[in-house]
Amino acid sequence: MARIEIDGQTYDVLDGSNLLSACLSLGLDLPYFCWHPALGSAGACRQCAVIQYKNAEDKCGRLVMACMTPVADAMRISIVAEQARQFRNDNIELLMTNHPHDCPVCEEGGECHLQDMTVMTGHTFRRYRGQKRTHNNQNLGPFINHEMNRCIACYRCVRFYDDYAGGNDLQVLGVHNNVYFGRFEDGTLESEFSGNLVEVCPTGVFTDKTFSAHYARKWDLQTAPSVCAHCGLGCNTAPGERYGELRRVINRYNGEVNGYFLCDRGRFGYDFVNSPERLRKPLLNDYSDITVNAAENHLRQLLEADKPAIGIGSPRASLEANFALRMLVGEENFFLGLEDTEHTLLNTIVELMRNGGIHSPSLQEVEQADAVLILGEDVTHSAPRLALSLRQAARNAAFDMARTLHILPWQDAAVRALENQAQSPVFIASICATRLDDVAANTYRGSAEDIARLGFAIAHCLDGSAPAPIDLGDTEQALASAIADSLKQAKRPLIVSGTSCASLAVIQAAYNVARALPSTDKQLTFTVPECNSLGLAIMGGRRLQQAFERVGNGLAESVIILENDLYRRAPVQNVDLFLETAADVVVLDSLKNKTTEQADLLLPAATFAESEGTWVNNEGRAQRYFPVYPATEPVRGSWKWLTEVMDDPQWQHHNALTAACASAFPDLAAIVNSAPGPDYTVKGSKIPRQPHRYSGRTAMHADIKVSEPGQPLDPETPFAFSMEGNTAQVPPALLPVIWAPGWNSNQAINKFQQETGGHLRDGDAGVRLFEAAGTLEWFGDIPQSFKPEPGRWRIMPLPHIFGSEELSLQSPSIAERLPAFCVLLNPLDAEALEADSGDQVEISDLAGDSILKVPVQIEKTLPCGLLGITAGLPAFPFMKTWAQVILKKIKQEGRL
After folding, report:
1. 718 with 686: CB under 8 angstroms?
2. Residue 490: which domain range?
3. Looking at the domain assignment, is residue 513 inside a domain?
4. 3-state DSSP helix/strand/coil percent for the chain, to nearest 5?
5. Which neighbouring-strand residues pair with 430?
6. pLDDT grade for 893, boundaries at 50, 70 and 90
7. Cα 446 from chain centre
8. Is residue 50 located within the same domain as residue 178?
9. Is pLDDT of 894 > 80?
């Protein structure tokens, strides 16, 4: 620590930090634009000027930029000195000479960092009356609006997009006082993290285009802490609602998980909540409306039948909803509702996390890794925010070199200049090219078997007692040896794998590698496909195929399906037979899908924005999400539908269900600590979901009734559907809205952190369920190398950030980014078929029955014998992973 003096007051601050970060961590107000805690210092805006004095006798001092000035013991500075104040005022006046006077119509208004800093600086009157510089704006795709005239040239956008996120299609163009931040031409921003520009930009240059379609000011949005529903990483979000419609999702800071950033699917996939395909009322048999009481009574009758009902759970439903279904039908009648291979893989991952003895890292810990091996995953598409963390891990060698050269880590330009000389090794073994290949020291392309064999070989090179693959090629053996040597030297090595390859051998190989590593700080993380995949696997249950057999054998008649489209889990003919054979099919879901079309009783379920629940992310962290606004009757949370028919008062409240679930499963015991219960208050009041400036409440329903209705009550959470309440002593992880006096933008988060860019005061949201314990035997079931069969291809589903996740596909902006409907073929395979990119091929099963006709796209990095398809894309029928098919080129008329 260093002791410094600021305006006559003495403070202890972190030695080696920059002065701006230190001041903000102390709670002091100092304006800035170009600096960002995750991006380091650039010194571009000159707005954080302070006076630094040599010693106690120095009365004049000198101007320094706080973001570029390292903290030193006995340092004396002044923020309020007149020279510094006048410099900051003059500087922002110059910045504003070209800034338009459009705050009333700017969508950033009310949460604008430029507004906050302008007021903080004291610049309240514009003297400049000359002509302003103007620019043309660009169409940057379905996610982002572009208003270049508001730019103050802070360079944050390109520093995040290009340097931090690895993009290459957003540049700074021009010179001197006429610079332009955009693409070389109009077009969709290619990065999967482009939406972060909305929050990174301190002005209104980049704004949320989806929010523009139903815009409301920040202070008019009702908000609650939530968790992203679109993958298994559990990024924290802050959804905002107005007039019963979800308007936007922004990042909610969690120092252990997502930090400051979200992927574009997590930010823009929310609009499924407002979809016209939402289920809004109970329906019976021929889609006739019924009342809630009639629906409940019908479900009770089914449960009282002679033969037991079976329940099918869901990896996108909460722990509480799955547990309620399990209690309703009984443990022996509860089925997980997973595709069979996925079921096996998730069970294996849970066992490795529980008893494997290797730490499962948070995303923040991933960023500290100094060597990475990725086995079988295209992480950008299967777990996007993890890919962003891995990209930062690749920089750690540059930080180490900077340390030896006495360059401080926040001096961003100097550290990045070293990246050409030093980069932490990242090795990627995948089916085909990935979006992280640009930071990889080496890449390997192969089938799942060959990826697993490489992993087993690496483990054997690390530890001779680990099983080794037989007949490994010389090239693969040399690569395995080189990777092992690099991992062996690392202090914090990380192994990444997951379920995308649908290969148990790949997951087992990843564990062998991690176990073989000599480092005591080694880490192993797995990607999982859905928001509660891990939680469902921890709870456990029977296989989906067993449910099919139970009904097929006449041992059960009624089926209750919880938030699960079975047509995404099993072949169409199997699901058709199952649903047709069942006497009664009850489906709880929020959106129409193929399974809801087959329901005899359809119950409308609330989404994450209208209900509460607990999900477990890939790290093993349980996190609670809360309703942003109350569901409109008769829509209810799934847990509520299921507990209502139990006719037992003890299950009428969510916290009782959470406690019972925690008691039933030792691994889930800590979920009761993931968030406070409904009795939590601050000075006798619940936490308000609405900001203190929330407007129009008395007029919201004036078109229906003149008198203001009472605010809805929320007996299930510590939050109130109101602006009344106390937020002053609320733990930051529970704050619905991040705001502090003088800080209306998202930069206000620095007021709630232990130190700027660090953990939240009183702790980040969520609780870890697993800690490394025990050890397992080596896995030795090593597959043979994949040998393509002439005339046959293996189906290989490949995840896609905008095409594979079920809920976000219903968001119009995400739908605009869907990948092309095509199959991927190796050039040699295409040549054998005499097919070029764009040609149509017919896919048939081995019996010769046609499955699908689809265009071809040639992918040079895809191994021979594999047929790549986009996993989960609606245009593709369910095709079993690794199934063999026959391809035939379709001759087109008019072509030779």
Report:
1. yes
2. 360-521
3. yes
4. 30, 20, 50
5. 445
6. low
7. 27
8. no
9. no
